[in-house]
Amino acid sequence: HALCSIATFVFLSTGSTVSGSLVRGEVGQNITVPCFYSVKTTQDITSMCWGRGTCPASKCYQTIIWTDGWKVTERYNSRYMLKGNLPMGDVSLTIVNAEEADSGIYCCRVEISGWFNDQRSNHKVVIERARISTASPHTYTSEQTSAHGSTSESSSTITATWPSVSPSEATQTASDPCSGTSDCLDVTTNLQ
Question: Which spans does this entry mark as compositional bias, Low complexity (predicted)?
Fold first, then answer.
């Protein structure tokens, strides 16, 4: 689960029977949208659905997944999965390899027997592009090489690329993966 995004959940009060959360993630991650219901005995295990858009009066709009309580019985897109323990009431939705188009409202509806007893929750999902892109050490060298000017300009180029690394640590980081190639020695020399 290295790619799973554990977001800070903000629970919204939109009525006595509807709860929800806000889940944020980045493009390319696996995003898990939380949904649970109480299972005390096997009699409590029940069917449920996930859909796009807010929960309607019954069922789900633009249905993504149906379960019978024990297993997934219908799935409309292979990128949507239920990885939790269904018979224990964990019906959280995992969106695999999230895209910006996955942003929006999702409905989790658990069908509880009786009139108007269904457990409904609306979840807002926000998928954003990654803010910091990663690149190979050669890319850093190219940026450094193209910076015509003083040593301070070269250093600031590398410092900006590694915002969490001090200049002395950046020297080690830049030189270690390259096994002493001439490009990497140039970077180290300019930093010093």
Answer: 145-161
CA distances from 135 to 1, 64, 139, 174, 186 (A): 23, 35, 6, 12, 18
- Comparing C-alpha atoms, which of 45, 28, 24 is closest to residue 79? 28
Query: What stretches of 82-177 adopt beta strand conformation (E)?
Result: 93-95, 104-110, 119-128
Tens of pLDDT, residue by residue over 76-128, are 999 999 999 999 999 999 999 999 999 999 999 999 988 889 999 999 999 99
- Token pair recorded at residue 154: 């070269």
Residue found by looking up tokens 């999902």 in the block: 125
CA atoms within 13 A on the CB side of 134: 0
Cβ pair 27, 100 in contact under 8 A: yes
Residue carrying the six token digits 């959360």: 21
Q: Which CATH class is domain 19-128?
A: mainly beta
DSSP secondary structure code for residue 90 in this structure = B
What CA–CA distance (Å, rounded) separates 47 from 171? 57
Tell if the pTM clears 0.90, that is, is over it: no
